[in-house]
Amino acid sequence: MKNLYVDCNSRTVQVSRIGIGLDVSAAGVVTNIPIPQFIRVKAVGGEARIKQNGDAGDGVLLSEGETEYFFLERQLELVSGQINVCLLYTSPSPRDA
After folding, report:
1. Model-wide pTM > 0.85
2. In principle, which of 3, 38, 73, 84 could form an S-S bond with 12, CB 3.0–4.6 Å?
C-alpha cells in the first residue's frame, strides 16, 4: 500500500489498489469516473491541462510524463492534451463517508 498526502484535510490516505487505466484524449468532461474519487493522472503525448468541472481558471498544467494525484469532488475535465487516469481504491473509501 502507498500513503498519499491529502491536503484538503491534512491527512494521509492508504491506497490499497490501483484500478485499470483510462486513456482520455478528447477535451471535455470525463463522465465515467465515480465521484468522489482519488485518482492518479499522467500526461501522455505532450502537455495536458485538467481541472474539476465548474472550476474557474485555466486548471492544472501537466508536463509530458508528469504524474499527479488528486481527490475529485466533481467530474474531471480535460481542457487540452491527453491523459491516462487510474482510479485509486482507498481504505476507507471516500464513498463510505
Report:
1. no
2. 3
- Give CA–CA dist 62/81, Å, rounded: 9
Which residue(s) pair with 4 in the sheet?
13
Answer yes or no: are the C-beta atoms of 84 and 32 closer than 8 Å: no
- By C-alpha distance, which of 40, 43, 48 is closest to 87? 40
**Interval 9-68: pLDDT, tens:** 445 555 555 566 889 998 999 998 888 888 889 999 999 999 999 999 899 999 999 988
Three cell numbers, residue 86: 487510474
Q: Which three cell numbers stand for residue 3?
A: 500513503
Using alpha carbons, select from 50, 2, 3, 1 the residue that is nearest to residue 24.
50
Closest CA to 3 of 69, 67, 52: 69
Picking from 88, 33, 32, 85, the residue whose alpha carbon sits closest to that of residue 62 is 85
